[in-house]
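Onboarding guide, step 5: your first structure request.
Type a short instruction followed by the sequence, for example:

Predict the 3D structure of this protein.
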Amino acid sequence: MGGIKRYADGALGSHGAWLLEPYSDLPESTGLAIASAEELAASARLAAEHRLQLCTHAIGDRANRVTSTSTRRR
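The system replies with structure tokens like these:
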């Protein structure tokens, strides 16, 4: 095994991508968070501990922001 895969959010077409602003055609929704910042950080620590690559599905702008801040090495 060479990596760990996590999902931060869903897809754009199904309104599942986690966005900073609501969808223009679905204003009551900003998408779907599948993993919390804490869960992503724990996965990043586990991957680093075992020298594995962490691959994260993050489509929406909020999902990308949460993923990048949660998984940065400190």
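Each response can be followed by summary notes, for example: The chain has two helices and two strands.
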